Amino acid sequence: MSTSTVTNPPAAPADAVPERVKRTRPVWFWPAVVGGAIVLISTLRVLTGASDIDSSGSLAAAVGLTMPILLAGLGGLWAERAGVVNIGLEGMMILGTWGGAFFAYSYGPWGGVLGAVLLGVIGGAVHALATVIFGVDHIVSGVAVNLLGAGAASYLAARTFSGLPGGGPTQSPPLEPFPSLTIGPLADALGKVEQSGTWLLADIASLLRAVVKDLSFITILTIFLVIATWFVLWRTSFGLRVRSCGEAPQAAETLGVNVILHKFLAVLISGGFAGLGGGFLALVASNLYREGQTAGRGYIGLAAMIFGNWRPGGLTAGAALFGYTDAINLRGRGDVIHAFLLPIAIGLVAWGIWQIVRRRQGKPMAGVVPVVTGVLALAWFFFTREVPREFTGMTPYVATLLVLAFASQRLRMPKADGQIYRKGEAR
């Protein structure tokens, strides 16, 4: 006669942290965020009198400045989802500026688009060859690509644009304007509503007017690429293989995934996106190539990708934030930045009080710093009328640092991001 004993599973330690359940956002989440932002900005416009805070001119400039950052961020998203850190986005964008200008001058605007993508892919191929094939440290390779991209673009510009009418060693001749979309009657009607200044209604009209007047076809293409990136990476088998290379390449290899191939392709796609971002600056924003015109937007695109938690939706929101602050900076509107001190101050005070009440992480004084900072910002708002011009110029970079600081607690990068992978390690 045999007896069987049933053993209970060992109890979890008392201090064990339960695994966080993955939550999916409802469909209405992002529309609600956008709607809430419109209501907030509209109210802020009425309270402070900063009429340019969401005028169609400001929003149109913000859209134009968002696109290259968004394209650079998409490039970083593809590479890092495959496990390759790509800080060489800036160099790939620089190559894209020259490629876009040279091919546009020779073959027309759409030839410039193809040229920008091609030069970006070449920069991506250099990074992929170094990191994926030869196992070079990703940061070292990215820095090298940035230096090579800047040097190569400068050399090629001097060789190709010198002696041309309006061209020189540091800039190209003026390029043919890139095609854009304008719905004239609708834009005029929305302009009248915007000029009325009615709360919320005027703000919605200015937002719509910004996207129906002089909207570049590259902007429309970029929005399509954001949607396509989400669909390919999260809804196709190819995207699943790419993401598996960034999470667990050894496990993916045991399941038959060609990790080297998928990493290489992802970095090539990354370079193409970054190159198109540089091409946007040359073809749409400036209508010519000018040395140094990327101005660090590749790095800001990387920051937008991190802020977006390596996802297209969050990346788009981050790029829009940085593009908007850059637009306000270029328009020199210190009163707009001054107006934003009010919600920032209120938000900091509320967040600090919430931290103090909850005694987060056992630190009852953790919320003192946000409260004090919020009170100082509130005093700055009430005792001044606008911020200094020097601070306005710092706004895009200050926004980058603040957003990354506040978003750092919820970020989750791909587990194998930046790791050197060697074929056959799983065996």
Order of helices and strands: HHHHHEHHEHHHHHHHHH
- The percent of residues in helical segments reads 55-70%
Largest sheet data: 2 strands, antiparallel
User: How much strand?
Assistant: under 5%
- Low-pLDDT runs: 1-21
Radius of gyration: 24 Å
Structural class: mainly alpha
- Name the average pLDDT: 87
- The strands making up the biggest β-sheet line up spatially as 1-2
Number of helices: 16
N- to C-terminal distance: 45 Å
- Shape field: globular
Q: What is the β-strand count?
A: 2
Please describe the topology of this protein.
Blueprint (H helix, E strand, L loop, with lengths): L28 H20 L7 H26 L7 H19 L1 H25 L4 H24 L18 E2 L2 H13 L4 H10 L4 E2 H19 L1 H11 L1 H6 L4 H27 L11 H11 L4 H20 L2 H25 L9 H16 L5 H19 L20
General description of the model:
- It is a single chain.
- This protein is an all-alpha fold.
- It has helices at residues 29-48, 56-81, 89-107, 109-133, 138-161, 184-196, 201-210, 217-235, 237-247, 249-254, 259-285, 297-307, 312-331, 334-358, 368-383, 389-407; strands spanning 180-181, 215-216.
- It has a domain at 54-181 and 216-310.
- The protein has a two-stranded antiparallel ribbon with strand order 1-2.
- Helix 4 runs antiparallel to helix 5.
- 43% of the residues are buried.
